[in-house]
Amino acid sequence: GTLRVGKDKVSWQELECYLFAEMLICVKEKKLPPQAVTQWDDDGAPRKTTRCTLKGSILIKKHLNEVSETGTIDENVLTLSLSVAELPQFHLRFDNRNQ
């Protein structure tokens, strides 16, 4: 789903995040202009064309050390502590606790 993510808790960006068995990936959806090549689905209807750019990935078994709830109770932030020198922490900010 769409989450606000960040390396620190100061600047956030909104990305689509997908959790798989062994990996968390974050992508940015690029909307293509209407004049882009039209694709058709199996029923002959025009298909909405979008492309995604991979913004980051975390190998859960290899990189993830700990998950903790951080921030105030209203912030709904999970912090991933990672074993990667370039990114020691990665924050996921949810709209609500049920997301």
TrEMBL record:
- Pfam families given in the database record: PH_10
Query: What's the protein name?
Result: Uncharacterized protein
